[in-house]
Amino acid sequence: MDVRIIILSLCCLIVQSDFIIKKNCKDVETSQCSIHNVAVDPCPRGPRLCVVKPDKAYSVNVDFTPHFPANNLKLALYSDDKKTNTYDTVIKTPEEVCGLVNCPLETEERKNFDVHFTLGKMSPGKFPIKMAFWNAENQTQQCCFTFNVKIRK
Fold this sequence. Notes:
The structure is a single chain. The chain is built from 1 helix and 9 strands; from the N terminus they run H-E-E-E-E-E-E-E-E-E. The protein has one helix at about 1-15; strands at about 25, 35-40, 50, 55-65, 75-80, 90-95, 110-120, 125-135, 140-150. Residues about 5-15 have low confidence and may be disordered.
């Protein structure tokens, strides 16, 4: 009987995890990068969908292995809140992230970093967010994934 309670408790902890389901970007070569885990904090309804509020601070933790070296890494966040597959709403403009990740990046060296962001005023609803980070000297060397959020009033 005690073993079943322990197993049930562990299952509950796993369900409450802030890891999210991510998808590779369709327009990016997936052989350039392996994304192991993505976690959004806070994300109480993960892993399928994070319910977020405008003007509240969130962070995304990315655990990845680049298959390319880079002296300088850039990152950007976009949303497709109009659901047109264009990701034309900028959440975070392209910026250097070597302060978040120790640069230079080495090929096949697993890395981990946190990015903080806030969503501005957007219409309520469900839509994907796209995170891309790339070698500043060669933009074809890129890691990219999407995850879903739902804006709550």
